[in-house]
Amino acid sequence: MPPTNAGGKSADPRSTDPDSPAPIRRERVGRGSYEDPADQRRKRRPGKTGRPGQ
Predict the structure, then answer these.
(1) In angstroms, what CA-CA distances link 31 with 13, 43, 46?
(2) How many Cα atoms occupy the beta-carbon half-sphere of 40 within 13 Å?
(3) What is the C-alpha separation between 42 and 26, in angstroms, rounded?
(4) Where is composition skewed (Basic and acidic residues) in this entry (predicted)?
């Protein structure tokens, strides 16, 4: 029997609820965070700060 919480419902809300969205797939840590993977590939080196005219 699946674990239940205090309300008597199943602890996993996605198990039987037909209105629930698809399960969340977390492939890697940081995926979908602030940094866009395409931007990380494009900008490999940091900008030259403190160098006038560069």
Answers:
(1) 23, 18, 21
(2) 8
(3) 24
(4) 24-40
End-to-end alpha-carbon separation of the chain, Å? 66
What pTM does this model have? 0.15
Q: How do residues 1-50 score in pLDDT, each as one tens digit?
A: 555 555 555 555 445 556 667 777 666 666 555 656 666 666 666 666 77
**Which DSSP letter does residue 22 get?**
P
Structure tokens at 47: 């900008």
CA quadruple 36, 37, 38, 44: dihedral, nearest 10: 110
d(CA 54, CA 48): 7
**Within 10 Å of residue 40's Cβ, how many Cβ atoms?**
9
